[in-house]
Amino acid sequence: MPASAAHVLLALSQLAPLELAENWDNVGLIVDPHPAGAAPALSRALCTVDLTEQTLAEAVAASVDLIVAYHPPIFEGLKRLRRGVPAERLIHELCLRGLTVYSPHTALDAAAGGMAEWLGAACGPGSLHPIVPAASSPELGAGRLVTLAEPLPLSEAIARIKQHLGLSQVRLAAPEGDALVRTLAVCPGAGGSLFQRVGQVDLLLTGEMRHHDVLARRARGTAVVLTDHTNSERGYLPLLAERLERACPGLEVRVSAADADPLCIV
What we know:
It is a single chain. It is elongated, with a radius of gyration of 19 Å. It has 9 helices and 13 strands. The termini are far apart. The protein has a 6-stranded mixed sheet with strand order 5-8-10-11-12-9. The protein has helices at residues 5-15, 53-61, 86-96, 105-110, 115-120, 154-165, 192-195, 211-219, 237-247, and strands spanning 28-31, 44-48, 66-69, 100-103, 126-129, 132-133, 141-142, 144-153, 171-173, 180-190, 203-208, 223-226, 252-255. By secondary structure, the protein is an alpha/beta fold. Helix 2 (53-61) links the parallel strand 2 (44-48) and strand 3 (66-69).
C-alpha cells in the first residue's frame, strides 16, 4: 500500500529538520503540483543530488511520484517560466507531470545521522562536533570537526576517503612527508567559507575550495583533499534512500543512476 504524502513529508522533515538549514537556503517542499489537500499517495521516490534533464527523464521512466533532490532546483526567486530556458523548463515539466520535489540540502547536512556526519566518518571512527552549532540543537549544525580514535598516516587517510566516497581519484594539497592525521574538518559541497571558522587541523575534506585558501592552509601544515562538489555528497544517497524507506512503509526509494558531477577528469 503506498504511503500518504503527508507521512512522507513528515518523515523527510524528521530526517532533516528544516530549522537546521542555513538562512540563505531554500529547503523543504519545492514543487507541489497538487491542489491543497489533494496530494495522492506516494509509491515510488527517486533520490538525486541534482535535478537535471537527465535525472528528470530517469524519474519519468521509473514512474516515480516524488523526487528528493538534495540541491533545491529553485534556489532564488523565479520570475519567469519559459520552456526555452533549461532551468525553467524543468519546473514546467515537473508540474505538467504531477511530480513532487523535496529538497533537504543544508538541513540534511546539519542533521543527526546526516551528510556531514557521514562525511566525517570517512577516515574512521572518532569524536565529531559541529563546526558551527545550531541554535536549536548545539550538538548538531554545519560541518564536522573530527578527532580520530586512532591517528592515521595521510596516505592511509586518503585511501579511506576514496573508499568511503567511491572515488578512484581525489585532489590533494599537502605538506611534504606522510604526516599523521589526528584531526580533520569536513564539509559537504563547498567548505571554504565554513572552514574560515576552523583553527589548526591536520586535514580538510570538502568538494571545492578557493585556490588561495588551499595555498594558505598547506602553508600552515594542513593537508587539503578536494573531491569536486557533488562527489562529496553523492555517496550519502543510498543511506538517505534506506532511511526514508524504513520510515515510510509502502514507499519504494531508488537512487539515481543518471546523477553525476558535471566535472570529470579527462
